[in-house]
Design brief:
5-stranded mixed beta sheet, 18 helices, disordered N terminus, Non-ribosomal Peptide Synthetase Peptidyl Carrier Protein, Chain A, extended, alpha+beta, 31% helix, 6 domains
Length: 696
């Protein structure tokens, strides 16, 4: 059909009916107009617009944001905003799964015949996916975001911005508040110490764009300087090689000429040629076989003639003169030994020693999944590997794994590993250190292993591992703070609180996390022989003004793990509760008068304050004070000794899981553990849970 025919055709008459905006009117073909060829080009049709992929109910918030971008692009291409509201919702329902449709109807209260636009429905879905993950966890992941080993600043900044989009950072000005917090995260997250020193003076007044520009320029400068230095070393290496080759060729030519004149009867031991006495061409020439001068390689005088290199397995040179090592130092890649047919990317030691290895508990984050995993550090391993049983324990479906790598993976003896299932990218954390890791999954792996590079990242081994540690410069991790004389005190305080965030917490933090237990054996209660149990069955009345505060404090103690409900089991011991009003809230103590008179005390006294200050040096100028947060409650109480601490309240009975306040032996047990923990620390004095450090 010609172009003119399409433009001048007549529309066939149809029955009168309401026009449908979704269906175009039919067009009848019209005979071609004279004067136009049948081969006249026709108008090309529009490209096919593919809808957005189906939105699944298990999608994360970040995955939903990506899906919404795809759907909005699709809506713009098809002109969705010009269609009727019912048609808009039909297009939306074709791009979401059946589970999400049920979620909209039954949980979010949006029926199929809703009057909302598709944009309002998308906003409701976005709020739902944003609320699936705890805000505190998202903020913690952002604040602990660190630049990984070998990661460029551009990749680190993209990862940081993705995390920042999921967190409500702003509490004041939308621009300055967000930028200030991101600047602080970048300052604590970059790996380059020199860059951190450059960022600290910029932090109070500069913008986020200036921060990012400084980081990028610093990385570009270091890369350029490294390229210049490496190219210079390569030129020197090639020049030395060519020089030795020219000398070898020149002396070989002279020796051939002189050997025809008056050669000796026996070949020379230094060059393996016959020549006159004193005319050895190898005199003063050095070669890369043994590092010595005066002989050619593989001659009788060469000490490396029968030696075998441990790096490339070739014969005729020492390991220190191996070209593979030199190439790796000048930017080239060392070739693998020619004796192996497969590529070995993992070496697992079969003999871990007579002592059982101690695993480390690592926090693993994979998408919206967070869990803990025990791995054994193995410095002979090139990859971090777990088994399928550990994958199931982490609740990671196998469908989310990447395909197995093409590289052959072998053990230390060269035998192949068990079949690989796949691998996945996750974030590992140990203490205050984190890294991005590739976790390989294999069948029948019973013990998860941590690779050598990840051991370095977690400071389990030194960065120069395989080299001996000649000298320890410091033991105090606070000495690593990259500060100068111009560093603001606020920046030092923020860094100090972040660096020791594993032990420095506030009462506000206990609202979202339990109180950590003190390391060591649990506290015991030693009843005297013939002790008579004591129990009250009626709680003491609580003043009306304090009832809400008492209930709130009891719930807080249960959440922190200090006490637990006693249930309906009868106990021989039960004590009344005593309330002590404070400026903000109330303190709960138990009247253990009858119990204190029938227990044995492991007496361990604490010095009096006026005796403690006498141990401070008169020349001390700097002082640091520390106070343990709920020190008594940090001590775990043995399970078999919890029933004598039962207390009765108007809200039920409870038992202590930690050291009870009001019990005579709690202070002795705490002072003993505190003195043992601080034993050997100089210029330190302690009175119960108050610590004072001094220095000149």
């Amino acid at each position: 059909m010609s172009l003119f025919s399409l433009l001048s055709g007549q529309i066939a008459a149809s029955q009168p009916q309401q026009p449908n905006p979704m269906i175009a009117p039919p067009v009848k073909p019209v005979p071609p107009t004279p004067g136009f060829s049948e081969h006249t080009p026709t108008i090309s049709s529009k490209p096919t617009v593919h809808p957005a992929p189906l939105l699944q109910q298990s999608a994360t918030y970040q995955a939903f944001r990506q899906w919404r971008l795809h759907f909005e692009d699709y809506a713009a291409l098809v002109g969705l905003d010009r269609l009727h509201q019912t048609s808009q919702l039909i297009h939306l329902r074709t791009c979401i799964s059946l589970d999400v449709q049920r979620l909209l109807t039954h949980k979010l209260g949006i029926p199929t015949n809703t009057s909302l636009s598709f944009t309002e429905v998308l906003d409701t879905l976005q709020k739902h996916f944003h609320s699936l993950r705890n805000e505190a966890l998202r903020r913690r992941e952002l604040l602990s975001c660190k630049q990984a080993v070998g990661e460029s600043f551009a990749d680190y900044y993209v990862r940081l911005k993705d995390l920042a989009d999921e967190v409500d950072l702003c509490t004041g000005n939308p621009t300055s508040c967000t930028e200030r917090q991101l600047q602080m995260v970048i300052l604590m997250g970059v790996r380059d110490g020199e860059l951190m020193q450059r960022l600290i003076p910029l932090q109070p007044s500069s913008t986020l764009a200036e921060f990012v520009t400084c980081c990028r320029s610093n990385e570009s400068t270091r890369a350029t300087a490294s390229a210049i230095a490496s190219s210079h070393n390569q030129v020197n290496a090639v020049s030395t090689y060519k020089k030795n080759q020219r000398l070898h060729k020149r002396y070989s030519h002279r020796s051939d000429q002189r050997s025809h004149q008056s050669p000796n009867s026996d070949p020379c031991q230094y060059c393996s040629h016959k020549h006159n006495s004193g005319q050895c061409p190898a005199t003063g020439v050095s070669y890369n076989s043994c590092g010595r001068t005066g002989h050619w390689p593989r001659t009788q005088k060469c000490p490396a003639k029968e030696a075998q290199c441990k790096t490339c397995q070739k014969q005729g040179h020492f390991e220190k003169m191996c070209k593979s090592i030199k190439k790796s130092q000048t930017g080239y890649t060392a070739s693998p030994p020619p004796t192996k047919s497969n590529t070995s990317c993992r070496f697992v030691s079969d003999n871990l020693g007579s002592e059982s290895p101690t695993p480390v508990t690592v926090s693993l984050s994979f998408g919206d999944i967070s869990s803990h995993l025990q791995l054994i550090p193995d410095t002979g391993e090139d990859i971090t590997v777990i088994g399928t049983i550990h994958l199931d324990a982490l609740r990671i479906p196998r469908t989310r794994l990447e395909p197995p790598p093409m590289t052959d993976i072998v053990t230390a003896d060269g035998s192949p590993m068990t079949p690989a299932v796949g691998y996945f990218q996750a974030t590992l954390r140990l203490g205050n250190k984190s890294c991005s890791a590739t976790i390989h999954v294999h069948e029948d792996i019973q013990t998860p292993l941590l690779s050598r590079e990840h051991c370095r990242a977690f400071a389990i081994v030194s960065p120069d591992f395989l080299k001996p540690i000649l000298k320890v410069t410091h033991l105090n991790r606070c000495a690593q703070f990259p500060a100068s004389a111009m560093t603001p005190p606020a920046a030092i305080k923020d860094y100090f609180l972040w660096h020791f965030s594993d032990i420095l917490i506030s009462k506000k933090d206990l609202q979202t996390q339990p109180l950590k237990k003190m390391a060591g054996p649990p506290m015991r209660i030693h009843l005297k022989p013939g002790a008579t149990p004591f129990a009250v069955h009626t709680p003491r009345p609580i003043p009306f003004a304090l009832r809400d505060q008492v209930k709130e404090e009891l719930d807080s103690l249960v959440q922190q793990g200090v006490i637990r409900p006693a249930g309906d089991e009868p106990f021989e011991w039960c004590h009344p509760m005593v309330l002590v009003p404070k400026d903000k809230g109330v303190r709960i103590i138990v009247d253990h008068t009858h119990l204190n008179s029938q227990v044995g005390r492991p007496t361990h006294t604490s010095p009096m304050p006026h005796d403690a200050v006498r141990n401070i040096s008169p020349t001390a100028k700097y002082f640091t004070t520390a106070d343990a947060l709920h020190g008594y409650w940090q001590m775990e109480l043995a399970e078999e000794d919890r029933h004598p601490t039962t207390l009765i309240t108007s809200y039920g009975r409870f038992q202590h899981c930690r050291g009870p306040m009001g019990f005579s032996a709690t202070g002795d047990a705490y002072c003993l553990r505190g003195d043992m923990a601080l034993q050997g620390v100089p210029t330190c004095v302690k009175v119960v849970d108050d610590i004072l450090l001094s220095d000149e």
